[in-house]
Design goal:
Blueprint (H helix, E strand, L loop, with lengths): L2 E7 L8 H16 L5 E6 L4 H6 L7 E6 L2 E7 L4 H9 L3
Parallel strand pairs: 1-2
Antiparallel strand pairs: 1-3, 3-4
Helix pairs in contact: 1-3
Length: 92
C-alpha cells in the first residue's frame, strides 16, 4: 500500500499565504512521526494550475490524501496538529 499526502499551496513562492506557513511545519512533523509510511508532496498551484483544477483546488492550503493512487480524503485550510495527526492515521 502506498500513501501520499499532497499539499496544494504556493508556500515556497508566495509569502502572502499565512495558513500555508502555519500548516507546513505541522504536516512535516506529523509525517516524520509516521516513519516513511506516508510521502509528502507539495504542489505549487501557481505553476501547476491544470493539476489544481483537476482536483478542484480553489483555496489554499488544500491537503489531499491518496492511497494506492486513489484520492481518499482532503481538508482545506490550516487545522490543529491533533487534527492533522488524526487525518494521517486514517490513511494507514
Amino acid at each position: 500500500m502506498s500513501c501520499w499526502l499532497c499539499i496544494y499551496s504556493s508556500h515556497e513562492c508566495c509569502s502572502w499565504c499565512g495558513p500555508c506557513k502555519v500548516l507546513d511545519p505541522v504536516l512535516r512533523e506529523e509525517v516524520t512521526k509516521l516513519e516513511d509510511k506516508v510521502d509528502l508532496a507539495r504542489v505549487d498551484v501557481d505553476k501547476v494550475t491544470e493539476l489544481a483544477l483537476t482536483y478542484d483546488v480553489s483555496s489554499i492550503p488544500h491537503v489531499i490524501s491518496f492511497v494506492d493512487g486513489m484520492k481518499k480524503s482532503q481538508f482545506v485550510g490550516s487545522v490543529s496538529q491533533d487534527e492533522v495527526a488524526k487525518f494521517l492515521k486514517k490513511l494507514l
